[in-house]
Specification:
- Strand 2 and strand 3 form a beta hairpin.
- The protein contains seven helices and 15 strands.
- It is elongated, with a radius of gyration of 24 Å.
- The chain is α+β, with helices and mostly antiparallel strands and 325 residues long.
Length: 325
Protein backbone atom coordinates (compact mmCIF):
# COMPACT_ATOMS: atom_id res chain seq x y z
CA UNK A 1 0.00 0.00 0.00
CA UNK A 2 1.20 3.51 -0.84
CA UNK A 3 -0.13 6.84 0.37
CA UNK A 4 -0.39 10.20 -1.35
CA UNK A 5 -1.53 13.57 -0.04
CA UNK A 6 -3.26 15.83 -2.53
CA UNK A 7 -1.29 19.02 -3.09
CA UNK A 8 -2.77 22.33 -4.31
CA UNK A 9 -1.86 21.61 -7.96
CA UNK A 10 -3.81 18.32 -7.89
CA UNK A 11 -6.88 19.65 -6.12
CA UNK A 12 -10.08 19.71 -8.17
CA UNK A 13 -9.21 16.68 -10.30
CA UNK A 14 -11.45 13.66 -10.58
CA UNK A 15 -10.10 10.61 -8.76
CA UNK A 16 -9.84 8.46 -11.90
CA UNK A 17 -7.99 11.16 -13.82
CA UNK A 18 -5.55 11.76 -10.98
CA UNK A 19 -4.91 8.01 -10.87
CA UNK A 20 -4.22 7.79 -14.61
CA UNK A 21 -1.72 10.67 -14.35
CA UNK A 22 0.00 9.29 -11.26
CA UNK A 23 0.16 5.68 -12.51
CA UNK A 24 0.50 5.87 -16.31
CA UNK A 25 1.26 2.13 -16.55
CA UNK A 26 -2.04 1.20 -14.94
CA UNK A 27 -4.60 0.39 -17.68
CA UNK A 28 -7.70 2.58 -17.50
CA UNK A 29 -10.04 -0.39 -17.25
CA UNK A 30 -8.03 -1.86 -14.38
CA UNK A 31 -7.94 1.51 -12.61
CA UNK A 32 -11.73 1.71 -12.76
CA UNK A 33 -11.93 -1.82 -11.39
CA UNK A 34 -9.60 -1.02 -8.49
CA UNK A 35 -11.64 2.07 -7.60
CA UNK A 36 -14.84 0.01 -7.73
CA UNK A 37 -13.33 -2.69 -5.46
CA UNK A 38 -12.15 -0.15 -2.91
CA UNK A 39 -8.44 -0.65 -3.56
CA UNK A 40 -8.20 3.13 -3.96
CA UNK A 41 -9.34 4.85 -0.79
CA UNK A 42 -9.86 8.55 -0.11
CA UNK A 43 -9.38 9.48 3.54
CA UNK A 44 -9.68 5.82 4.47
CA UNK A 45 -12.97 5.23 2.66
CA UNK A 46 -14.05 3.65 -0.61
CA UNK A 47 -14.82 6.34 -3.18
CA UNK A 48 -16.34 6.86 -6.61
CA UNK A 49 -14.27 7.43 -9.71
CA UNK A 50 -15.73 10.90 -10.41
CA UNK A 51 -15.24 12.35 -6.92
CA UNK A 52 -13.36 15.67 -6.93
CA UNK A 53 -10.20 15.64 -4.84
CA UNK A 54 -9.48 18.49 -2.45
CA UNK A 55 -6.25 19.76 -0.96
CA UNK A 56 -5.11 17.58 1.94
CA UNK A 57 -7.03 14.44 0.91
CA UNK A 58 -5.13 11.28 1.86
CA UNK A 59 -5.19 8.60 -0.83
CA UNK A 60 -4.30 5.00 -0.04
CA UNK A 61 -3.53 2.82 -3.08
CA UNK A 62 -3.64 -0.94 -2.63
CA UNK A 63 -2.06 -1.57 -6.03
CA UNK A 64 0.85 -3.78 -7.13
CA UNK A 65 4.25 -2.09 -6.93
CA UNK A 66 5.09 -2.56 -10.62
CA UNK A 67 2.36 -0.09 -11.63
CA UNK A 68 4.25 2.67 -9.81
CA UNK A 69 7.20 2.37 -12.22
CA UNK A 70 7.81 4.96 -14.91
CA UNK A 71 6.91 3.94 -18.49
CA UNK A 72 9.70 2.34 -20.51
CA UNK A 73 9.71 0.07 -23.58
CA UNK A 74 10.48 -2.85 -21.24
CA UNK A 75 7.42 -2.45 -19.02
CA UNK A 76 4.90 -1.37 -21.67
CA UNK A 77 3.11 -4.73 -21.23
CA UNK A 78 1.68 -3.46 -17.94
CA UNK A 79 -0.51 -1.07 -19.93
CA UNK A 80 -2.28 -3.99 -21.65
CA UNK A 81 -5.31 -4.95 -19.56
CA UNK A 82 -6.80 -7.54 -21.93
CA UNK A 83 -4.21 -9.08 -24.27
CA UNK A 84 -5.56 -9.55 -27.78
CA UNK A 85 -4.04 -12.80 -29.06
CA UNK A 86 -5.31 -15.46 -31.43
CA UNK A 87 -3.39 -18.44 -30.05
CA UNK A 88 -3.20 -21.48 -32.33
CA UNK A 89 -1.04 -23.57 -30.00
CA UNK A 90 0.57 -23.26 -26.59
CA UNK A 91 2.68 -25.45 -24.34
CA UNK A 92 5.19 -24.82 -21.56
CA UNK A 93 7.87 -23.79 -24.07
CA UNK A 94 6.26 -21.71 -26.79
CA UNK A 95 3.24 -20.06 -28.38
CA UNK A 96 2.05 -20.04 -31.98
CA UNK A 97 0.04 -16.85 -32.53
CA UNK A 98 -1.98 -15.77 -35.58
CA UNK A 99 -0.99 -12.09 -35.88
CA UNK A 100 -3.60 -9.83 -37.43
CA UNK A 101 -2.58 -7.46 -40.25
CA UNK A 102 -1.88 -3.94 -39.03
CA UNK A 103 -0.11 -4.93 -35.81
CA UNK A 104 3.66 -4.56 -35.51
CA UNK A 105 5.52 -7.48 -33.94
CA UNK A 106 8.12 -5.51 -31.94
CA UNK A 107 7.93 -2.12 -30.20
CA UNK A 108 9.47 0.66 -32.28
CA UNK A 109 9.73 4.44 -32.28
CA UNK A 110 6.10 4.75 -33.41
CA UNK A 111 4.38 2.08 -31.30
CA UNK A 112 5.35 0.73 -27.87
CA UNK A 113 2.18 -0.73 -26.41
CA UNK A 114 0.00 -2.19 -29.16
CA UNK A 115 2.54 -4.71 -30.47
CA UNK A 116 2.41 -8.48 -30.68
CA UNK A 117 5.33 -8.94 -28.30
CA UNK A 118 3.84 -6.55 -25.74
CA UNK A 119 0.53 -8.45 -25.80
CA UNK A 120 2.39 -11.75 -25.40
CA UNK A 121 4.32 -10.37 -22.42
CA UNK A 122 1.08 -9.11 -20.86
CA UNK A 123 -0.63 -12.48 -21.47
CA UNK A 124 2.16 -14.51 -19.83
CA UNK A 125 2.55 -12.01 -16.99
CA UNK A 126 -1.15 -12.15 -16.18
CA UNK A 127 -1.03 -15.96 -16.28
CA UNK A 128 1.86 -15.74 -13.79
CA UNK A 129 4.08 -17.72 -16.15
CA UNK A 130 6.58 -14.88 -16.46
CA UNK A 131 7.66 -11.87 -14.47
CA UNK A 132 10.48 -9.44 -15.34
CA UNK A 133 10.85 -8.70 -11.63
CA UNK A 134 12.36 -12.10 -10.86
CA UNK A 135 16.14 -12.14 -10.72
CA UNK A 136 17.66 -13.28 -14.01
CA UNK A 137 14.24 -13.49 -15.63
CA UNK A 138 14.15 -14.41 -19.34
CA UNK A 139 11.94 -12.18 -21.46
CA UNK A 140 9.75 -14.18 -23.88
CA UNK A 141 10.91 -13.48 -27.42
CA UNK A 142 9.77 -13.92 -31.01
CA UNK A 143 11.53 -16.46 -33.24
CA UNK A 144 10.26 -14.99 -36.50
CA UNK A 145 8.77 -11.69 -37.56
CA UNK A 146 6.13 -10.55 -40.03
CA UNK A 147 5.62 -7.11 -41.59
CA UNK A 148 3.03 -4.81 -40.02
CA UNK A 149 0.48 -5.21 -42.83
CA UNK A 150 1.07 -8.94 -43.28
CA UNK A 151 -0.84 -11.38 -41.12
CA UNK A 152 0.11 -14.87 -40.08
CA UNK A 153 1.71 -17.29 -37.67
CA UNK A 154 4.44 -16.02 -35.35
CA UNK A 155 6.44 -18.24 -32.99
CA UNK A 156 7.12 -16.97 -29.47
CA UNK A 157 9.54 -18.73 -27.13
CA UNK A 158 8.73 -18.78 -23.43
CA UNK A 159 12.23 -19.74 -22.29
CA UNK A 160 15.83 -19.43 -23.45
CA UNK A 161 16.18 -23.11 -24.38
CA UNK A 162 13.11 -23.00 -26.64
CA UNK A 163 14.40 -19.80 -28.26
CA UNK A 164 17.84 -21.31 -28.90
CA UNK A 165 16.49 -24.53 -30.42
CA UNK A 166 13.82 -22.86 -32.57
CA UNK A 167 16.22 -20.23 -33.90
CA UNK A 168 18.65 -22.99 -34.86
CA UNK A 169 15.88 -24.98 -36.56
CA UNK A 170 14.93 -21.89 -38.58
CA UNK A 171 18.58 -21.28 -39.55
CA UNK A 172 18.93 -24.94 -40.58
CA UNK A 173 15.70 -24.67 -42.63
CA UNK A 174 13.92 -27.31 -40.56
CA UNK A 175 10.85 -25.06 -40.23
CA UNK A 176 8.65 -24.66 -43.32
CA UNK A 177 6.78 -21.36 -43.73
CA UNK A 178 4.04 -21.14 -46.32
CA UNK A 179 2.24 -17.99 -47.43
CA UNK A 180 -0.86 -17.15 -49.39
CA UNK A 181 -0.89 -14.04 -51.55
CA UNK A 182 -2.78 -12.47 -54.42
CA UNK A 183 -0.78 -11.10 -57.33
CA UNK A 184 -1.75 -8.96 -60.29
CA UNK A 185 -1.85 -11.04 -63.49
CA UNK A 186 -0.70 -14.65 -63.83
CA UNK A 187 2.64 -16.35 -63.48
CA UNK A 188 4.20 -18.25 -66.36
CA UNK A 189 4.92 -21.00 -65.54
CA UNK A 190 2.09 -21.39 -62.99
CA UNK A 191 4.44 -23.25 -60.64
CA UNK A 192 8.12 -22.62 -60.14
CA UNK A 193 10.87 -20.82 -58.26
CA UNK A 194 11.85 -17.18 -57.82
CA UNK A 195 15.56 -16.84 -57.11
CA UNK A 196 17.87 -13.85 -56.92
CA UNK A 197 19.71 -11.52 -54.57
CA UNK A 198 18.05 -8.92 -52.37
CA UNK A 199 19.80 -5.68 -51.43
CA UNK A 200 18.25 -3.70 -48.59
CA UNK A 201 18.13 0.08 -48.57
CA UNK A 202 18.08 0.98 -44.86
CA UNK A 203 17.00 4.57 -45.55
CA UNK A 204 14.02 3.71 -47.77
CA UNK A 205 13.23 0.50 -45.83
CA UNK A 206 12.96 -1.25 -49.15
CA UNK A 207 14.80 -4.01 -51.01
CA UNK A 208 15.85 -4.32 -54.64
CA UNK A 209 16.06 -7.61 -56.55
CA UNK A 210 19.14 -8.55 -58.58
CA UNK A 211 19.68 -11.55 -60.85
CA UNK A 212 23.41 -11.75 -60.10
CA UNK A 213 25.37 -11.51 -56.85
CA UNK A 214 25.84 -7.95 -55.62
CA UNK A 215 27.87 -6.57 -52.75
CA UNK A 216 25.68 -6.59 -49.66
CA UNK A 217 23.01 -8.65 -51.41
CA UNK A 218 21.58 -11.82 -49.88
CA UNK A 219 20.33 -14.93 -51.65
CA UNK A 220 16.54 -15.18 -51.80
CA UNK A 221 14.61 -18.24 -52.96
CA UNK A 222 10.81 -18.59 -53.03
CA UNK A 223 8.88 -21.62 -54.31
CA UNK A 224 5.41 -20.82 -55.67
CA UNK A 225 2.36 -22.44 -57.20
CA UNK A 226 -0.86 -21.00 -58.58
CA UNK A 227 -3.99 -22.06 -56.72
CA UNK A 228 -6.65 -20.09 -58.61
CA UNK A 229 -7.09 -17.34 -61.21
CA UNK A 230 -9.95 -14.86 -61.64
CA UNK A 231 -10.50 -11.38 -63.06
CA UNK A 232 -6.86 -10.66 -63.71
CA UNK A 233 -5.72 -11.86 -60.29
CA UNK A 234 -4.01 -15.03 -59.11
CA UNK A 235 -4.11 -16.68 -55.71
CA UNK A 236 -0.65 -18.06 -54.98
CA UNK A 237 0.89 -20.33 -52.38
CA UNK A 238 4.54 -19.58 -51.60
CA UNK A 239 7.04 -21.46 -49.51
CA UNK A 240 10.11 -19.63 -48.28
CA UNK A 241 13.41 -21.40 -48.74
CA UNK A 242 15.14 -18.30 -47.38
CA UNK A 243 13.54 -15.68 -45.17
CA UNK A 244 14.56 -12.18 -46.23
CA UNK A 245 12.96 -8.81 -45.64
CA UNK A 246 10.04 -8.23 -48.06
CA UNK A 247 11.16 -11.33 -50.00
CA UNK A 248 7.82 -12.38 -51.50
CA UNK A 249 6.66 -8.82 -52.17
CA UNK A 250 9.87 -7.75 -53.89
CA UNK A 251 10.36 -10.91 -55.94
CA UNK A 252 6.85 -10.98 -57.39
CA UNK A 253 7.06 -7.27 -58.17
CA UNK A 254 10.37 -7.83 -59.94
CA UNK A 255 8.71 -10.61 -61.94
CA UNK A 256 6.09 -8.10 -63.13
CA UNK A 257 3.31 -9.32 -60.84
CA UNK A 258 3.23 -7.25 -57.64
CA UNK A 259 0.98 -8.20 -54.76
CA UNK A 260 -2.50 -6.77 -54.63
CA UNK A 261 -2.63 -3.90 -52.13
CA UNK A 262 1.12 -3.49 -51.85
CA UNK A 263 1.82 0.22 -51.39
CA UNK A 264 5.60 -0.11 -51.51
CA UNK A 265 6.24 -2.48 -54.43
CA UNK A 266 2.83 -2.52 -56.11
CA UNK A 267 0.64 -0.45 -58.40
CA UNK A 268 -1.37 2.15 -56.51
CA UNK A 269 -3.91 2.73 -59.27
CA UNK A 270 -4.78 -0.96 -59.66
CA UNK A 271 -4.93 -1.39 -55.90
CA UNK A 272 -7.53 1.39 -55.71
CA UNK A 273 -9.51 0.02 -58.64
CA UNK A 274 -9.70 -3.40 -57.01
CA UNK A 275 -10.60 -2.02 -53.59
CA UNK A 276 -7.44 -3.05 -51.76
CA UNK A 277 -5.63 -0.11 -50.16
CA UNK A 278 -5.26 -1.36 -46.57
CA UNK A 279 -2.11 -3.39 -47.10
CA UNK A 280 -0.64 -6.18 -49.20
CA UNK A 281 -2.65 -9.38 -49.70
CA UNK A 282 -0.11 -11.61 -48.01
CA UNK A 283 -0.56 -14.07 -45.15
CA UNK A 284 1.79 -16.52 -43.42
CA UNK A 285 -0.96 -19.10 -43.27
CA UNK A 286 0.85 -22.38 -42.59
CA UNK A 287 3.76 -23.49 -40.42
CA UNK A 288 5.25 -26.98 -40.48
CA UNK A 289 7.86 -28.60 -38.26
CA UNK A 290 9.38 -31.62 -40.08
CA UNK A 291 12.45 -31.58 -37.76
CA UNK A 292 14.78 -34.12 -39.43
CA UNK A 293 17.19 -33.73 -36.50
CA UNK A 294 16.90 -33.83 -32.72
CA UNK A 295 14.58 -31.18 -31.27
CA UNK A 296 15.13 -31.41 -27.50
CA UNK A 297 12.30 -29.82 -25.53
CA UNK A 298 10.54 -28.99 -28.82
CA UNK A 299 10.19 -32.67 -29.73
CA UNK A 300 6.36 -32.53 -29.34
CA UNK A 301 6.27 -30.33 -32.47
CA UNK A 302 7.96 -32.90 -34.71
CA UNK A 303 5.91 -33.70 -37.80
CA UNK A 304 3.11 -31.30 -36.86
CA UNK A 305 1.58 -28.51 -38.90
CA UNK A 306 -0.67 -25.54 -38.16
CA UNK A 307 -2.91 -23.64 -40.59
CA UNK A 308 -4.78 -20.43 -39.76
CA UNK A 309 -8.58 -20.78 -39.78
CA UNK A 310 -9.27 -17.90 -42.19
CA UNK A 311 -7.65 -15.32 -44.44
CA UNK A 312 -9.71 -12.23 -45.25
CA UNK A 313 -8.50 -11.59 -48.80
CA UNK A 314 -9.05 -15.21 -49.83
CA UNK A 315 -12.65 -15.01 -48.68
CA UNK A 316 -13.11 -11.69 -50.50
CA UNK A 317 -11.44 -12.36 -53.85
CA UNK A 318 -11.50 -16.17 -54.11
CA UNK A 319 -14.46 -17.26 -51.98
CA UNK A 320 -14.61 -20.68 -53.65
CA UNK A 321 -11.11 -21.59 -52.44
CA UNK A 322 -10.27 -23.32 -49.20
CA UNK A 323 -7.12 -22.15 -47.45
CA UNK A 324 -6.37 -25.71 -46.30
CA UNK A 325 -4.35 -26.42 -49.44
Amino acid sequence: MREFTIAPNDAGQRLDRWLSKTLPLLPAALAQKYIRLGRVKVNGKKSKRDVRLVRGDLLQLYINDEFFDRPTPENAFLSVYKPQLNILYEDENLLLVDKRPGMVVHPDEQERVNTLLTHIHAYLYQKKEWSPYQEGSFAPALCNRIDRNTGGIVIAAKNAEALRIMNQKIRDREVEKSYLCIILGTMDPPQGKLAGFLLKDEVKKQVSVHKRPIEGGRTAVTLYRTLAKAKGLSLMECRLVTGRTHQIRAQFAAAGHPLLGDGKYGRERENRQRGRTSGQALYAYKLSFPFPTEAGILEPLRGREWVVPAVDFVAEYFPECSIHV
